[in-house]
Amino acid sequence: MKHFKTLSSYLDYLQLPRPEHPMLSVFNSKGDGFLPCPKESSPPITNDCYTISFKKFVEGKLNYGRTQYDFTNGALFFISPRQVLQWDNSVVFEQKGFSINFHEDFLKGTELAQRIKKYGFFSYSVNESLHLSPKEERQIEFIVENIEIEYQNNQDEFSKDIIISQLDTLLKYANRFYERQFLNRKDMSNDLLEQFNHHLDTYFESGKLQEKGIPSIEQIATELSVSQRYLSDTLKKETGKSTTEHLHLLLIDEAKNILLQPNKTVAEVAYELGFEYPAYFSRLFKKKEGLSPTDYREKYKLN
C-alpha cells in the first residue's frame, strides 16, 4: 500500500496543483468555478494529512469503495492521517465546494493538535458525512474564505496562527452541526440500534459465541456497514451508553438465562458466552448486577 509522507507528494499523486504552503493547501470553487478533479481511481493509499472537504457534484455520481453516493445537495466530510483511502468513479463529473488539506505537523505546538484528535467525525466513513443546511453551508463557506485569504496572501508571522484559529472555528461548528444531524436523524439512530441488537441476538442464537468468542466492536460495525466511531457515537446519543456497554448488557442478559440452568457451572456459563477467562466474566457480571453470578443463581434459582 502506498503511503505519502508529505502533502506535496500526496497532491502530486492525486494529479492536483502543488500547494502554496508546504504543509497546507486550499482549493475553493467559488462563484461559477469548479474544484480541480483528482485522478479518477486509486487502489488503497494512506498519507500523513488531514482533509476537510465540502463537495457538491454537479454531474455524475461518485463510487467510493462498493457504495455509490449522491452528493448533489453537498456534504462535508473529514479524513484523518493514515486513514485508508480508495475510490473509483465510472463517469466524468464536475464538482463545487472546497477542499482543505494540511499535514499533521502543521498543527504541532498548538492546542488544536490535541483537540483535533477528540473529534470523532474524522473517523467516520464517507457515507456518514455531515449534510449542511443552506444556513450552515454559508457559515462554513465564510470561514473557508478567511482561510483562503491568508493562504493566498504573502504569509507573515501571523498567518499560521490566523489559519489555525479559523480551522479551530470550522471544526467547532462542524461538531455543533453533527449534534444537530444526530437529533434530526432519530429514526436512523433508532434503526441502527435495532440493527445492532438484532445482529447480536442472531450471533448469540447461532452458537458463534462458543465458536468464535465475543465479537469485537470493529467486527459488529463492519457487519452493519458503518464505521466503529459512528456506531459508538450514534448509540451514545440515542441511549447514553457506549457500544461496549450495550454489548456487555446483552451478554449479561444472556448470562442470566443460562445461570438459572442448575447443571452448568459459572465457568461453563462464561465459556458458553465467549469469555476466555471466567474470572473476568464474574467481575463484569458483579459490576453490572451488584452481585456475583453465584449469588444471582442462589437468589433467583427456580424452586
Automatic annotation (TrEMBL):
Coiled coil: none annotated. Gene3D superfamilies: Homeodomain-like (1.10.10.60). PROSITE patterns: HTH_ARAC_FAMILY_2 (PS01124). One of its GO terms (molecular function) is sequence-specific DNA binding. SMART domains: HTH_ARAC. InterPro entries: Homeodomain-like_sf, HTH_AraC, Tscrpt_reg_AraC-type_HTH. The keyword Transcription regulation applies. The keyword Transcription applies. It holds the Pfam family HTH_18. Keywords: DNA-binding, Transcription, Transcription regulation. Signal peptide: none annotated. Residues 198-299 form the HTH araC/xylS-type domain. PANTHER family: ARAC-FAMILY TRANSCRIPTIONAL REGULATOR, TRANSCRIPTIONAL REGULATORY PROTEIN. This is Transcriptional regulator, AraC family.
